[in-house]
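Q: what sequence does this backbone want?
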């Protein structure tokens, strides 16, 4: 039987409980999931290596997945790893609009690529990495927003910025 291998890409700066929910649900649908941490884009708080390590540590209890980094186009990574689908989480209509154009361009670049969207659970739909960082920067409790392993590292990293 052909293995159903999906890719879950993102910047994960840092990984949140929302991301974790999407990965857990993707693992229920696919035989294997490669979490692909993107190098480029906005200036991240955590380095690429740190983001990969935080995902690996946060998800050490989950099997059938691996965490890798990539630079360049998502479609090239899909080709390289021969995945059959891309997993993305959708939290709002704004996410949906954003994903529509990403899917459109990706499918022009790699015809036949498939995208599977998982709706965020309502209690996790408000979480986004930038808000997590803002809460931590001002000394708020992030324990219901990010996996336990991320909490002390995030607090330490942002403590120096605290007013
Ligand atoms: N729960 C909680 N937060 C979530 C989430 C979920 N289920 N899904 C996304 N988020 C948050 C992220 O934390 C991030 O928050 P922030 O903006 O506050 O930092 C935000 O939503 C964006 O998420 P991210 O997954 O990083 O999406 P992105 O739109 O930046 O896309 C890639 C990331 C890697 C998929 C995209 O940049 C990419 O494909 N890069 C490769 C280059 C490429 O091929 N470009 C052409 C694309 S057409």
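A:
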């Amino acid at each position: 039987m052909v293995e159903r291998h999906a890719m879950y890409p993102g910047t994960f700066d840092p990984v949140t409980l929302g991301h974790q929910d999407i990965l857990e649900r993707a693992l229920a649908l696919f035989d294997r999931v490669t979490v692909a941490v993107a190098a480029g884009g906005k200036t991240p708080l955590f380095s690429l290596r740190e983001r990969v390590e935080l995902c690996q540590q946060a998800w050490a209890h989950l099997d059938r997945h691996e965490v890798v980094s990539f630079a360049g186009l998502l479609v090239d990574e899909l080709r390289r790893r021969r995945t059959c689908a891309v997993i993305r989480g959708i939290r709002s209509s704004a996410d949906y609009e954003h994903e529509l154009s990403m899917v459109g361009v990706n499918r022009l670049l790699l015809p036949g690529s498939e995208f599977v969207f998982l709706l965020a659970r309502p209690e996790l739909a408000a979480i986004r990495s930038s808000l997590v960082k803002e809460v931590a920067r001002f000394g708020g409790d992030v324990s219901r927003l990010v996996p336990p392993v991320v909490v002390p590292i995030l607090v330490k990293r942002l403590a120096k910025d605290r007013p």
